[in-house]
Amino acid sequence: MESSGPSSCHSAARRPLHSAQAVDVASASSFRAFEILHLHLDLRAEFGPPGPGPGSRGLNGKATLELRCLLPEGASELRLDSHSCLEVMAATLLRGQPGDQQQLTEPVPFHTQPFSHYGQALCVVFPKPCCAAERFRLELTYRVGEGPGVCWLAPEQTAGKKKPFVYTQGQAVLNRAFFPCFDTPAVKCTYSALVEVPDGFTAVMSASTWERRGPNKFFFQMNQPIPSYLIALAIGDLASAEVGPRYDLLFMPPSFPFGGMENPCLTFVTPCLLAGDRSLADVIIHEISHSWFGNLVTNANWGEFWLNEGFTMYAQRRISTILFGAAYTCLEAATGRALLRQHMDVSGEENPLNKLRVKIEPGVDPDDTYNETPYEKGYCFVSYLAHLVGDQEQFDKFLKAYVDEFKFQSILAEDFLEFYLEYFPELKKKGVDSIPGFEFNRWLNTPGWPPYLPDLSPGDSLMKPAEELAELWAASEPDMQAIEAVAISTWKTYQLVYFLDKILQKSPLPPGNVKKLGETYPKISNAQNAELRLRWGQIILKNDHQEEFWKVKDFLQSQGKQKYTLPLYHAMMGGSEMARTLAKETFAATASQLHSNVVNYVQQILEPKGS
């Protein structure tokens, strides 16, 4: 987010946005009635045993929200997103400007109201209603212990094994379990934080500046407005290393559920990326691309998640093409397309979650709608829009103009598509938004396979040999001479991934072939690279190759990334009786080290609702 400061977002008259009226059914807050100008957190971290009671682990302190009333008639109540794990002890209203002699400070009553299984409303009542445009501050004294937004890890769950660790994960709607807030991507604010930690611990946050204040306190400031889900904290026994030009990454403990989380100025990433061969650099490129798409220009609600992820996939692959060439990028995109195909085969193409614009019903956790569609179908739609322009340089310029137009704001698809047609008036004149079969409305609102697929033929030089080799292994009597003539020792990781995807598609293979394949390619069957371990595990399960089932358990015990964990549980539960037993045994052994969301998803796979 190294663009311009927040003042620039108010410097020119802005176009009226469709998103200004957008609802967010996942927020209980009155985010349309008040503008949040700034948030300040003053927290002390205490590491102790889990659970309630004296001395238990938790974050204690205050959240101070600086607000402005937007309602012409004023307001007598403020609603914030909160969670049952978050205990608010006091609320104080500060009226008038800071330092003002006339500043009024008064305690105010508050209560909670039920909202959904993933949060509740914190209602603060003003004894005297606030006026239109009035600015005030609300100071909330609170404590949070065990909950879905703040993840506590015991020493044995960390890489160092000596000290505990705590981190927060905000996306999509988990930061309401970290601090009371407008927990919606529709609004943005600047924030600051003062965090006190025990001796020997370091705190880091997603902030543009930080400084030590004494031996145990860290002060952070984020000078650009960001949505609440991007405010992130981690505290632990952290070591740092300079690896190149400044872009801060925090390698998380193995239980971290994502490949990466694009917290601004401090991306959280899985240790699975440390493959030793730089082969998974595309994840880092993806998270850097979020600096523009997602962090600077944000989806206004989680039903428009493709605006964050489809553009980021497009930017990632543009950068990858320049760095690694078109053949490699098309190969990587082909593996993404295979994941989309796999997802749609499992979920059914007509599943409403396979639309770009997802209708999230009240009470449904946006995290439960997460899948490959916003990423890969979103990428196809952005690629289609580039294809309509027909000139890569022109489309690249358009993307820069798009970011500049909507920076520091949250938008809907209508805002983006109107800008696209204004930027390319010749396309608007041609009516490209309503070409039969490719209507923009169809792209957004019809589930199923993308109407347009980008041409991946530049990757044929890498894909064809992998396809031909997979064909050889699918034969009832594999031609070992032809197989050994293929020198896979020179293949890059994604070529091996693509080969394994093809093997998986052809599985189950004739009896004995998987055992022979594993013996022929120990580089694959004994790989430490997580992408290869995932595919090999799926192949083992699809072919019921029981002598290597231990490798699946071993991999699942080594990490907790959702993208790897859930497909393997799906494969186990879709496999033999022995595979289903393996699923239950593995989950019993690993549940304590998984993120709470991942635990819930695995439980749903093991015991589907209504079964």
UniProtKB/TrEMBL annotation:
It catalyses: Release of N-terminal Arg and Lys from oligopeptides when P1' is not Pro. Also acts on arylamides of Arg and Lys. The active site is at E287, Y375. It holds the Pfam family Leuk-A4-hydro_C. Gene3D superfamilies: 3.30.2010.30, Neutral Protease Domain 2 (1.10.390.10), Peptidase M1, leukotriene A4 hydrolase/aminopeptidase C-terminal domain (1.25.40.320), tricorn interacting facor f3 domain (2.60.40.1730). Its EC number is 3.4.11.6. One of its GO terms (molecular function) is zinc ion binding. The keyword Nucleotide-binding does not apply. Its main location: secreted. SUPFAM superfamilies: ARM repeat, Leukotriene A4 hydrolase N-terminal domain, Metalloproteases ('zincins'), catalytic domain. Zn(2+) binds at H286, H290, E309. Residues 461-606 form the Peptidase M1 leukotriene A4 hydrolase/aminopeptidase C-terminal domain. Binds 1 zinc ion per subunit. GO terms for cellular component: extracellular region. Transmembrane segments: none annotated. InterPro entries: Aminopeptidase_N-like_N, Aminopeptidase_N-like_N_sf, ARM-type_fold, LTA4H_cat, M1_LTA-4_hydro/amino_C_sf, M1_LTA4H, Peptidase_M1, Peptidase_M1_C. Exopeptidase which selectively removes arginine and/or lysine residues from the N-terminus of several peptide substrates including Arg(0)-Leu-enkephalin, Arg(0)-Met-enkephalin and Arg(-1)-Lys(0)-somatostatin-14. Can hydrolyze leukotriene A4 (LTA-4) into leukotriene B4 (LTB-4). This is Aminopeptidase B. It comes from Rattus norvegicus (Rat). The lineage of its organism: Eukaryota, Metazoa, Chordata, Craniata, Vertebrata. The gene is Rnpep.
